Amino acid sequence: MKFLTTNFVKCAVKSCDASEKSFPLKYEECQLQSEEQEFNPAFIVSMLDRIDWDALVSVAADLGNRSIPAEKPENIEQNEALLRELHSLLLETQIVEGKMMCQNCGHIYYIKDSIPNFLLPPHLAN
Amino acid sequence: MDDVHADVRTRYEKLTEPYMDCTFKFEVVEYQGAKKAKKEQIRIIDSFKYLGLRGKIRLSNPAQVFTVLQSYSIEADLCPRSEPDYCWFGRQVGLSARSHGIVDRYEIAKRPYFGTTTFESELSLVTCNLALVKEGQLVYDPFVGTGSFALAAGHFGGYTFGSDIDFLALKGGRPGQKDIKRLKDNFKHYGTQTKFGDVLCMDFTNSALRKDLIVDTIVCDPPYGIREGLRVCGTTNLESAKLTENKLIDGEKAFLRREYVQPKKPCTLDFMLDDLLRFSAERLPVGGRLCFWMPAADDEDIPRLIPQHEKLELIYVLEQSFYRWSRRLLVYVKRDGSYTGKTVTKEERAHENNFRERYFNRFI
């Protein structure tokens, strides 16, 4: 699971949809791996439109990375150092194993073999 | 052909002027027509003599290629009709991906990872083509399986995400395979690894994708339930659900443990399709497309089985037929607020697409 994906996923339980606390999930006990990928600044810039910056900062902190600026800087397009850092964080950082917890309902999801598992037990699915 | 000539004669001067003196060649391309003898081809080409092209004929690397396209229908005796139904004449401006051998290159057997239900290469490419997948888009397949659509979308430049309820399909590998391969390896094999986003194990009806994430294109082949059953999370056994909810293992809630396996229950195709349309209407941007395949027995009232959503306009219904059943590629476009379609959910359809049952009863 790429770091980027953590910015797209929330708790799968329907009754959590209304709660702001269901996104992002809280990441715990994560094993990380770096997978090298070609640097494509244009791609990172285009992805920024879809990215929730606050969630990015919070998940990065979960994983021990506190170097991302708390506010989304202006003119990122020209800031190669930051683009490189985002590239390495969003695309090259893989979460191989770990836990994701919903801060609204407390349900725990697992990442196994690099694949996040969002399947729900019967009493939470409908 | 006479109509084509009549038409070309009225406006060819304008068309040919910039190309009168460059090197050129002619091609005759047929669809479903038996291959023509050289003589017949030359006769067709010669019939365009009046264009008066002055350039040199060059068969390899000409500056211009003029093409006569002919489309034939097949007669009851399975031979093409002697005369084409349609003819076109034009100047070649570009060729489709097909002419670069893409269908062959993406053949299932040539991929490092595939399964018994992997969707064929040609139609997955056609699907992504009709979905207008292009560079930089976010493409999502909610029933990704072994990932034919994702791979095809990656070829056209889409950044692809997929989800599936079947963890094993995402994990990859085949029985007896030592070196485990998964979808990501297919992207690597085709040199499109930067187009692979991620795969998530997820029940589509309980989606973990955040609500405000814009997905540019959705392509999929919802499982019909022939080889892969259509399933969602849950159980029909309410007692056992209660038991799991309260069960403790080593003082821990069983359903919160890493090893816990979420039970699944069957779900109908109609239910899933309504959910797919609702999801697409919420997430697609205006102009974004949803493309998926829907199976049906031939004797059903098929137009009545097709789901509709008020924000999605159904623009193409393309059929592929099999013995006693067929499947249709449905292409929908998300429209803006001025468009008012009609939502037709399974309640309004009042007619079940019980394809799986019909299939196993041999459509009798």
TrEMBL record, chain A:
Localization of this protein: Cytoplasm; Nucleus
Molecular functions per Gene Ontology: protein heterodimerization activity
Gene3D superfamilies on file: 2.20.25.10
Example of a GO biological process term: tRNA methylation
Keyword Nucleus attributed: yes
Keywords: Cytoplasm, Nucleus
Any one annotated GO CC term: cytoplasm
Keyword Transcription regulation: no
Location (main, coarse): cytoplasm
Pfam families: Trm112p
Annotated family: Belongs to the TRM112 family.
Name of protein: Multifunctional methyltransferase subunit trm112
Automatic annotation (TrEMBL), chain B:
Name used for this protein in its record: DEKNAAC100490
Domain tRNA (guanine(10)-N(2))-methyltransferase TRMT11 N-terminal: residue ranges: 2-98
Gene3D superfamilies per the UniProt record, alphabetical: Vaccinia Virus protein VP39 (3.40.50.150)
Occurrences of domain Ribosomal RNA large subunit methyltransferase K/L-like methyltransferase (ranges): 110-229
Alphabetically ordered keywords of this record: Methyltransferase, Transferase
Transmembrane feature ranges: none
PANTHER family: RNA METHYLASE-RELATED, TRNA (GUANINE(10)-N2)-METHYLTRANSFERASE HOMOLOG
GO molecular function, one term: methyltransferase activity
GO cellular component term of the entry, any: cytoplasm
Keyword Disulfide bond: no
Pfam families attached to this UniProt entry: Tmrp11_N, UPF0020
GO process annotations (BP): methylation
InterPro entries named in the record: DNA_methylase_N6_adenine_CS, RlmKL-like_Mtase, SAM-dependent_MTases_sf, TRMT11_N
